[in-house]
Amino acid sequence: IQIAQCFEATRQRCCRLEQDGRRAREQLARVEAERAALEVKLKHARNQVEVEMKKRHRAEAELEKQERKLQLVFESLMREPWGSGVLTGEQCSVLSALAGRRLGAALVPGRRSSAVDESCQSLLSHSDISYDRTEDDVVRS
Q1: CB–CB of 108/97 below 8 Å?
Q2: Domain ranges across the chain
Q3: pLDDT tens digits for 130-139?
Q4: Do residues 84 and 78 touch, judged by C-beta distance below 8 A?
Q5: 22 vs 92, which has greater pLDDT?
Q6: What is the mean predicted confidence (pLDDT) over 84-105?
Q7: Using one digit for the tens of pLDDT, what is the confidence trace for 19-52?
């Protein structure tokens, strides 16, 4: 009777272990599916970051190009003999507002400067935005 009880206890224990193993495999399958979905989302997010950074670079280049044009136009106006006398302080302030903060100092009447004031750059430059791909290299077992 003791041997039969021992076999029965062992059989019940084996059944519990099989159920635990089945649940663990199911949970593992769910977690792996979730991980795969998150990896796809991460890949899409990284691609989107790259696209947005390229757009930002193009926009910044265009902005700099337009700022240079505006500065050249203003300097050309100031070089003309009639330019400095014709432009009133209000007109210069309007031009300064159109030029934005980066060229504001260069557009002050009577002061010509080819240097661009870089002190008002964006607080989040493109170099501040980065991501680490080291997690991509993790060996999966």
Answers
A1: no
A2: 1-79
A3: 555 555 554 4
A4: yes
A5: 22
A6: 62
A7: 999 999 999 999 999 999 999 999 999 999 999 9
The rounded distance, in Å, linking the Cα atoms of 55 and 47 is 12
Q: Which burial class, exposed, middle or buried, applies to 42 when counting CB atoms under 10 A from its CB (0-12, 13-18, 19+)? A: middle
123-126's contacts with Cβ under 8 Å and 24+ in sequence apart are: 126/53, 126/56, 126/57, 126/60
Does residue 108 carry a pLDDT above 50? Answer: no
Which residues neighbour 105 within 8 Å (Cβ) at sequence distance 6 or greater? 111, 113, 117
Cα(15)–Cα(9) distance, rounded to whole angstroms?
Answer: 10
State the residue for tokens 């209000």: 90
Torsions phi, psi for 133 (to 5 deg): -100, 10
Instruction: Quote the CA–CA distance of 112 and 76 in Å, as a whole number.
Output: 10
User: What gap in Å lies between CA 18 and CA 57, rounded to an integer?
Assistant: 58
